[in-house]
TrEMBL record:
It holds the Pfam family Cadherin_2. SMART domains: CA. SUPFAM superfamilies: Cadherin-like. Gene3D superfamilies: Cadherins. This is PCDC1 protein. It comes from Eubucco bourcierii. The keyword Cell membrane applies. It is found in: Cell membrane. PANTHER family: CADHERIN-87A (PTHR24028), PROTOCADHERIN ALPHA-C1 (PTHR24028:SF153). It is a single-pass type I membrane protein. One of its GO terms (biological process) is homophilic cell adhesion via plasma membrane adhesion molecules. Its main location: membrane. Residues 6-105, 106-214, 215-321, 322-426, 427-536, 561-648 form the Cadherin domain.
Length: 688
């Protein structure tokens, strides 16, 4: 949008101009929240906006003549930038002229030398007054103080500009009056009008009655703005009908030519060649100079010609890129078309040299869109993904259409902010965990870990157990998990004999909004330990009593006396059982199978065998260390089951090893050995 205001120059500070909110259809209450800014290329901020009401007022009085010099129209361009959403409005202020400048002559005194022999009708050019105001407020007419010898006439040059001439009414007589003092007054058309005066001092001379005359009243030339010093612009030429020194002409710039133009150009005093003298540092396309031709007479006469120099632009300015607004970082879920930056791109050259083409690299998810005049918007053109690319360096290239073209580059650093678009991810869906039973409380079991590609709170993962039950008990009573690192600990000891395996799920959740989560299933297998001794199921003993088995009195060899049956609640080798006979009242009578636990006779029973026997059987597993259980079996040799069983209780102690029979056998063996040794000794002595 665009709005145009008109304001008179020198309007006092605080004077109202308009209401920008009302004129542009904007709610005044939103101006501050939308971070409004007024942008201008001027070095001063001439206007201000009330953030509460939207009222536009004068911030600093404007001097139109200082701001716009001699331009016919004085315009101030402002841009109003609003954010959230990003909007740009153009404001144009037409600065109206007021009659605040009086006409001013370039010199405080102007001297004219006139030969006394001049006839009435002779003309002399008078200086033009300058008035910085425009239109009717500029110089409108000239008047001359009363003098019988002179009057004032206005003349028109070939380009339509007017200038005053002093016309001789009556012949001069130097002997009567050598000097005439006149006052030239310039008036503007303001209300009230303003005026300026200059003294015109006429000195009457006796010689040189012809002034030089230019071949043209107006000379026109064209020169490139980057022309080097010494470049010929034009050659002016004037003639003087006088002879000798009175006809010799010297060229120079008139005093009414501004000093800056006299520094840019020089005129050869003898040839009239106008050349470039320095850098042409002006922005105006047409320059106006006055060249004076003066003869070398004792009382030199002069005339002036106007020189209009048209400056041809060359492409000597590159585009200027200004970042008016930049939004960074931008969220990665920004939709295509989101405005990121507002750019102002200008080229000071006029015409084609000032036209600009802008571009950015093709491989970026962004594009440049033209906005208002000389403004471009940088918008997204595709989807963004911070996990792939977290920042962009966008190089904007602005190239003018000059020949050769000039390019300017500016790089914008745009960061992409994270949104919670990635859930935590485990390395596997299932994991197997092995733990030995009888573990201590708080034992570490396993550590799960999930990764999240997001950053900050969106990527910070916490771990929890999903609610479930194991063997009828809440999972939370068995396990705990570290919220921060996913370490899993046992809250109680496991018992393989009660629980061999179970599974549960750990949930990983990020801290985004809304939060995203994932779960992993852990299969827990409890390893067995040898913590159970074999249990003897048969033969059963009650309260430590001896189990009694009845065997026929004359049983045959390999007769099955009994079979020891045992069980171990442990698993694998911890439950592999072996049977051992640790005590037997008659070691020659019974044998025990180590694998089956069968107790059998090793020979046939004899009538001389004792009727009552006792064996102790040990059942042992293969754990590390092994555990064992014992059972004592009493064996009664009888053909029928007696009504009362004999007492086998001897405190489990085996019978004494040294009875009478054993002592007899030992003594006999010792005697025989002694006799044999004595014989050998005797035999050895005999041989020697």
């Amino acid at each position: 949008g665009q709005v145009v205001y008109s304001i008179a120059e020198e309007t006092e500070r605080g004077a109202p101009v308009g209401n920008i909110a009302k004129d542009l259809g904007i709610e005044a209450a939103t101006l501050a929240a939308r971070k409004f800014r007024m942008l201008t290329g001027s070095s001063k901020q001439y206007f201000t906006i009330n953030a509460s009401t939207g009222a536009l007022s004068v911030n600093e009085p404007i001097d139109r003549e200082q701001l716009c010099e001699l331009k016919p129209a004085c315009l101030l361009n402002y841009e109003l930038v609003l954010e959230n959403p990003l909007e740009l409005y153009r404001m144009e202020f037409k600065v109206l002229d007021v009659n605040d400048n009086s006409p001013v002559f370039p010199l405080s005194e102007y001297h004219i030398k006139m030969p006394e022999f001049l006839s009435p009708g002779a003309r002399f050019t008078l200086p033009n007054a300058q008035d910085l105001d425009e239109g009717t407020n500029s110089v409108q007419n000239y008047t001359l103080s009363s003098d019988e010898h002179f009057h004032l006439e206005m003349q028109t040059r070939g380009d339509g500009s007017k200038y005053p001439e002093l016309v001789l009414n009556k012949a001069l007589d130097r002997e009567l009056q050598a000097t005439h003092r006149l006052v030239l007054t310039a008036k503007d058309g303001g209300d009230p009008p303003k005026s300026g005066n200059v003294s015109v001092i006429v000195t009457v001379l006796d010689t040189n009655d012809n002034a030089p005359e230019f071949e043209q009243s107006v000379y026109r030339a064209t020169v490139l703005e980057n022309s080097p010093s010494g470049t010929l612009v034009v050659q002016v030429h004037a003639t003087d009908l006088d002879e000798g020194p009175n006809g010799e002409i010297r060229y120079s710039f008139s005093n009414t030519t501004t000093a800056d133009l006299q520094r840019m150009f020089s005129v050869h005093p003898h040839t009239g060649e106008v050349t470039v003298n320095g850098v042409i540092a002006v922005q105006r396309p047409l320059l106006e100079l006055l060249v004076e031709a003066r003869d070398n007479g004792a009382f030199g006469m002069s005339s002036t010609a106007k020189l209009l120099v048209e400056i041809t632009d060359v492409n000597n300015h590159g585009p200027e890129i200004t970042v008016t607004s930049l939004s960074s970082p931008i969220p990665e879920d920004a939709v295509p078309g989101t405005v990121i930056a507002l750019l102002s791109i200008l080229d000071k050259d006029p015409g084609e040299n000032g036209k600009i083409a802008c571009q950015i690299p093709d491989n970026l998810p962004f594009q440049l869109k033209p906005s208002l005049e000389n403004y471009y918007s940088l918008v997204t053109s595709g989807l963004l993904d911070r996990e792939l690319i977290s920042e962009y360096n966008i190089t904007i290239t602005a190239t003018d259409l000059g020949s050769p073209p000039i390019s300017t580059q500016k790089t914008l650093w745009v960061q992409i902010s994270d949104v919670n678009d990635n859930p935590p991810v485990f390395s596997a869906d299932n994991l197997d965990v092995f733990v030995e039973e009888n573990n201590p409380l708080g034992a570490f079991l396993y550590q799960v870990s999930a990764s999240d590609l997001d950053t900050g709170e969106n990527g910070r993962v916490s771990y929890t157990l999903r609610n479930s039950t194991v063997a009828g008990s809440p999972l939370a009573s068995l396990l705990s998990v570290s919220l921060a690192n996913g370490s899993i600990y046992a809250k109680r000891a496991f018992d393989f004999e009660q629980l061999k395996s179970f599974y549960f799920q750990v949930e990983a959740k990020d801290n985004g909004l809304p939060a995203l989560s994932a779960a992993i299933t852990l299969n827990v297998y409890i390893s067995d330990q040898n913590d159970n001794a074999p249990a003897i199921l048969y033969p059963a003993s009650h309260n430590g009593s001896v189990a009694v088995e009845v065997v026929p009195r004359l049983a045959d060899e390999d007769y099955l006396v009994t079979k020891v049956v045992a069980d171990d609640e442990d698993n694998a080798q911890n439950a592999w059982l072996s049977y051992h006979l640790t005590y037997s009242s008659d070691s020659t009578l019974f044998r025990l199978s180590p694998h089956t636990g069968e107790l059998r006779t090793t020979r046939s029973m004899r009538s001389t065998d004792f009727l009552k026997h006792k064996v102790v059987v040990v059942v042992q597993d293969h754990g590390d260390p092994p555990l064992s259980s014992t059972v004592t079996v009493g064996i009664l040799l009888a053909d029928t089951l007696p009504q009362v069983l004999p007492d086998f209780d001897d405190n489990g102690q085996p019978p004494p090893l040294l009875n009478a029979t054993n002592i007899y056998l030992i003594a006999s063996l010792a005697c025989v050995s002694f006799v044999f040794a004595a014989f050998l000794l005797f035999f050895g002595v005999v041989r020697l």
